[in-house]
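This section describes the prediction task in plain terms. A model, or a person checking by hand, is given the sequence of a single protein chain and must write out its three-dimensional structure as a string of tokens. No templates, partner chains or ligands are provided. The sample shown here is typical of the held-out split.
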Amino acid sequence: MADIHPRVQRDYLELPYAFSLAQELSASECQPLHRRKREPLAAAVQAAVHAIGYGAPTLQHWRDLADAANLTETLLSMGVFNDPDAPGLHQDALACVATLGRQHGHGQDMRLNAVQLAHLVEFGEAYAQVLDLIPARTYIRAHRATERRLRELLAKSYGCDSHEFIVV
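The expected answer:
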């Protein structure tokens, strides 16, 4: 761990995963997450989009959007769905989330222009649809893979040339 990214605290890398392997294996292969679990996830993203639209986002709103964007990136890489639009809804949303993170990191208000906000609104709607459609096991597998990928990137500073680390 000597090459840990300088902006990351070791404590983050030692946190337990949100889901265990046993939870992944016991989750349904055909039914989505139970409504009581998926609705708060979708609602958090919608609340973040709403807060950004009204100019009052918090750091937690940004984190909710970043988590959704990272999970979506994993689902795309797993081939669960594709992003056929050019340049792609996911890429647009990821750019918006990165912009907000940079603004916060520089002590600025987290704001987007109208076009960026429209992309984020579309992303929030699409994210809710994805949660409604993908099986629980797929969601949990993607969540675990996302946590592994992010920890690996941060712990080894792997991808510094291809990934921007926004740690807030």
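For orientation: The mean pLDDT is 82.
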